[in-house]
Amino acid sequence: MPVHELAQLTWEEVRELDRKNAVAILPVGAIEAHGPHLPLDTDVVIATAMARAGARKLMDHGHVVLILPALAYTAASFGSAFHGTLSISAITVTALIVDVARSLSDQGFRLLVLANVHLDPEHLTALNEAVKLARADRLLPIVFPDLTRKPWGTRLGDEFRSGACHAGRFETSIVLHERADAVRDEVRQFLAPNPQSLSKAIKAGKRTFEAAGGPRAYFGDPAAATADEGARLVDALGAILEEAVSAEI
Q1: CB neighbours of residue 16 within 10 Å
Q2: Fewest Cβ atoms nearer than 10 Å: which of 66, 70, 90, 157?
């Protein structure tokens, strides 16, 4: 049973699917500054990798799986001072996801899953609110494994747990694995580690990368990244997605 890319199917092919047992996965990311070495769509690249890895695991358990086109625009106010970052309101993000859930519900799909590694607080609030609103409106369930909550984040390595993980070793390793040609390696290998914890800065009330101690929009140790570690991290993200779905079903 293949993993389907929804946008590549015809409407008649979708009509013939077993939609009552179908899981739809929506990769959610941002267009946001990720240091001087990673592209602005890094979160979209990683969310898409998470979606595909999770989809393969779900397929192995007999589920019909469709990957939706990625949502690339969201709340990204922490990086808004950096050129190229595009931030939209959290209200808009919530409304869009609920509307996607409503459309999937109308077509008889079983479940919508959000694959996400963008950790901007406004964005996370928007996704969690969409889960609540879909439930209140009696739409299909939305499953959202929030990586900032236990047990998920504990499985993604020391850098991720430290909170110093924006465009650092964690994210850079995954992009090296998924799209090595997009990494500015001549810059990456000479970047000094930035041990400032973005998660601790957020708890302390900081609202921008610069205020949190990231003047070049990166936290962690991108020079230590490897594609092999990226492969392991993608597999771990896929397992998180599959386990979150299994807990719901």
Answers
A1: 9
A2: 157
CATH of span 3-248: 3.40.50.10310
Q: Cis check for the bond before 151: say yes or no (omega within 30 of 0).
A: yes
Query: Does the CA dihedral 132-54-163-81 come out positive or negative?
Result: negative
Mean pLDDT of the 242-249 span: 90
CA atoms of 183 and 156, how far apart (whole Å): 21
C-alpha distances in Å from residue 55, one per residue of 58, 61, 78? 5, 10, 30
Distance of CA 135 to the CA centre of its chain: 21
Angle at 221 between CA 217 and CA 223, to 5 degrees: 105
CB atoms within 10 A of CB 237: 27
Residue 3 burial class via C-beta count within 10 angstroms: exposed 0-12, middle 13-18, buried 19 and up: middle
Residue-level pLDDT at 67:
97
> What's the rounded Cα separation, in Å, for the pair 151 and 138?
27
- Where in the chain are the domains? 3-248
Q: Which two tokens stand for residue 2?
A: 């293949």
Q: What is the pLDDT of residues 146-199, one digit of tens each?
A: 999 888 988 999 999 999 999 999 999 999 999 999 999 999 999 999 999 998
Outline where DSSP puts E strands in 119-239: 142-143
